[in-house]
């Protein structure tokens, strides 16, 4: 559904074209009982399949056998279902969010075992997400008894779990405390157990009111220790803020950022 509009129109036209060709071949099996003439050299079976699908009279064609009559009725039913499906696809295409969230390729871990694990995302969609909630979850496989494996889910508490309004970008951070599943289990054990992290962002589109949900997965290998994200937001001389969406994945060592930002030591 996120294909460009020209491709989308071609796909919808292709559905009708395939349907016409299939029924034209079926009518051709009984073409002697289709009374009428073709148009512009097109076989009468194709002309009848086309006009029967779109309820249009391009050429006077009549059926004179039970087979063709039953096939024509079946095509009308299939045509109605096709129109309903295409209408639904157009509605979804118009109401979808054209610019989904784009997550950073890595997570940044400031320090171990008492730092913060962070990811961030951006969107080029100019509209807002409303009543947004965030979640970060750890998945890993545990052997609950010899030979019996179970996938366990460990929620990771976030500093901010929700916001009334989301626009352009946000950072999600999990604080590493003794109660954190990451600290209790250890990154090495999580990696050995095939662990993975999942981030969920859920909200409501301000334009259509439709629910929005985006999910992104990270591997443990995607964690960069001792790193922080560089700033996305800058302020020009007039005090106007701007967001550099292309800097989504830029990181820097935490010591370097601390030296360039003395406020972090206060």
Automatic annotation (TrEMBL):
Keyword RNA-binding attached? no
Q: So where does this one cross the membrane? A: 6-27, 77-95
* UniProt keyword list: Ion channel, Ion transport, Membrane, Potassium, Potassium transport, Transmembrane, Transmembrane helix, Transport, Voltage-gated channel
Residues covered by the Inward rectifier potassium channel C-terminal domain: 168-260
Q: State the residue spans of region: Disordered.
A: 246-266
Compositionally biased residues, Polar residues: 257-266
Please give the InterPro entries that the UniProt record associates with this protein. Answer: Ig_E-set, IRK_C, K_chnl_inward-rec_Kir, K_chnl_inward-rec_Kir_cyto
Enumerate the subcellular locations listed in this protein's record, separating them with semicolons. Membrane
Task: Give the bilayer topology.
Answer: Multi-pass membrane protein
Q: What is this protein called?
A: Inward rectifier potassium channel C-terminal domain-containing protein
State the species of origin. Answer: Cyanobium gracile UHCC 0139
Q: Taxonomically, what lineage is the organism? A: Bacteria, Bacillati, Cyanobacteriota, Cyanophyceae, Synechococcales
């Amino acid at each position: 559904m996120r294909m460009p509009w020209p491709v989308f129109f071609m796909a919808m036209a292709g559905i009708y074209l395939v349907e016409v060709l299939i029924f034209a071949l079926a009518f051709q099996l009984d073409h002697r009982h289709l009374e009428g003439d073709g148009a512009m050299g097109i076989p009468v079976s194709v002309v009848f399949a086309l006009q029967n699908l779109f309820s249009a009279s391009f050429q006077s064609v009549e059926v004179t056998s039970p087979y063709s009559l039953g096939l024509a009725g079946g095509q009308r039913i299939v045509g109605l279902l096709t129109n309903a499906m295409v209408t639904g696809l157009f509605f979804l295409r118009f109401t979808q969010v054209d610019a989904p969230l784009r997550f950073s390729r890595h997570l940044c871990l400031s320090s171990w075992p008492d730092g913060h694990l962070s990811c961030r995302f951006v969107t080029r969609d100019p509209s807002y997400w409303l009543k947004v909630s965030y979640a970060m979850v750890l998945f890993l496989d545990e052997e609950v008894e010899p030979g019996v494996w179970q996938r366990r889910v460990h929620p990771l508490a976030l500093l901010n779990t929700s916001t009334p309004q989301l626009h352009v970008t946000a950072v999600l951070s999990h604080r590493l405390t003794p109660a954190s599943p990451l600290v209790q289990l250890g990154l090495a054990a999580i990696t050995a157990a095939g662990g993975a992290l999942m981030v969920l962002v859920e909200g409501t589109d301000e334009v259509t009111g439709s629910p929005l949900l985006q999910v992104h997965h990270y591997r443990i290998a995607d964690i960069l220790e001792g790193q922080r994200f560089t700033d996305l937001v800058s302020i020009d001389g007039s005090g106007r803020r701007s967001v550099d969406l292309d800097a989504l994945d830029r990181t820097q060592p935490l010591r370097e950022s601390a030296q360039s930002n003395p406020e972090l030591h206060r």
